[in-house]
Amino acid sequence: MKFLAALLCAFFLHTSASANTYAIVNGEEINIDEINYFIKSIDKEGSYVKLSNEDKNLILHQVIEKKLLIQEAKKEKLEDNKEFQKTLMDIKNNLLVEFWMKKKFNSIVVSEKDIETYYNAHLDEFKQEFQLKARHIVVETLEEANAIINELNQTKTDIQKKFILLAKEKSIEPAGPNGGDLGWFKKGIMMDEFWDEAVALKEKHYTKKPLKTLFGYHIIYLDAKQEAYTVKLDQVYLTIKNKLQMDTFQKNVDESIKKIKQKAQISVIK
Q1: Residues 6+ apart with CB under 8 A from 95
Q2: Considering only CA atoms, which of 120, 98, 71 is closest in space to residue 232?
Q3: CA angle, corner 242, sides to 239 and 246, nearest 5?
Q4: Are 89 and 237 contacting, i.e. CB atoms less than 8 angstroms apart?
Q5: Is the pLDDT of residue 14 over 50?
Q6: The domain spanning residue 194 has which CATH number?
Q7: Fewer CB within 10 A of the terminal residue: the chain, N end or C end?
Q8: Range of the structural domain that residue 190 is part of
Q9: Per-residue model confidence as pLDDT tens digits over 43-89
C-alpha cells in the first residue's frame, strides 16, 4: 500500500522535462523532484543534493529500479486490473480528504495574544509542584542494609557513583539495574514514610539508617530538590499554539461537516 501511495503521489507531482535530469530509463526521464519525492516516501530526511556520493548512488539506483518495475507493470497491463483500480481510487480519495484537512488546518491563524490569553487563564496547568529526585537500594535484611551503609560511610570519593554501583549489584528493586534511579517525583507518589526520609536529606546525601517498608529495607540517596515554580510562557509557547490550532481545527471541521451534511441528499439503506 505504501509503495502504491508513493507511486500515485509521484504521478501527481511528476515534473516537466526541463527539470534537472539524472537518468533516462527506456526513454523516461528521472529528475530531481522525482528523486526527492522518493527519498521522502521512504521516510528519509533531507534532499538528494545534500547526500553523500555513496548515498546518492544508492538512492538513484533505487529510483531507477522503481522506474523499471513501473514500466514492467505497465507492460503487463496491471493498471487495468480491477483490484489495482479500486486500490488506486481508495488512495486517491484518502489523499483528497487529507489535502482538504491540510487546507483547513493551514488556514487557522493563532495570534500571540491568543497564546498569552490562554497561558494567563490556565496558569494552574503550568505550575510544577515541589519535587525530589532520588535513588534507593532495597535489600531483604537489616544486616544487608547496614553493611551497605557502612560501605558508603567508608567511601571517600564519589558517593553517588558508589551508590549507583551498589544499587546495580545488590538492590532487589526494579530500579536497581538503573542505579536505583527513581527520577523526579512529588509528594504523594511514594509512600509517606519514604517521602519524609527523602525530603529530610540534603542534596547528594544518603540515609544513615535503613527505612523498613513492605518491600524490604531501603537506603535512600537524594540527587536534587526542585522548588515549586511556574513554567514560563516562552517554554510552552509552541505547545499552546499547537493546542489552540488543533482545537480550532477540530471545531472548524465539525462545523464544516455539519453544513455539508445539511446541504447533501443522503439516503441510508438498511
Answers
A1: 5, 8, 9
A2: 120
A3: 140
A4: no
A5: no
A6: 3.10.50.40
A7: C
A8: 126-229
A9: 777 788 888 899 889 999 999 999 999 999 999 999 999 999 999 99
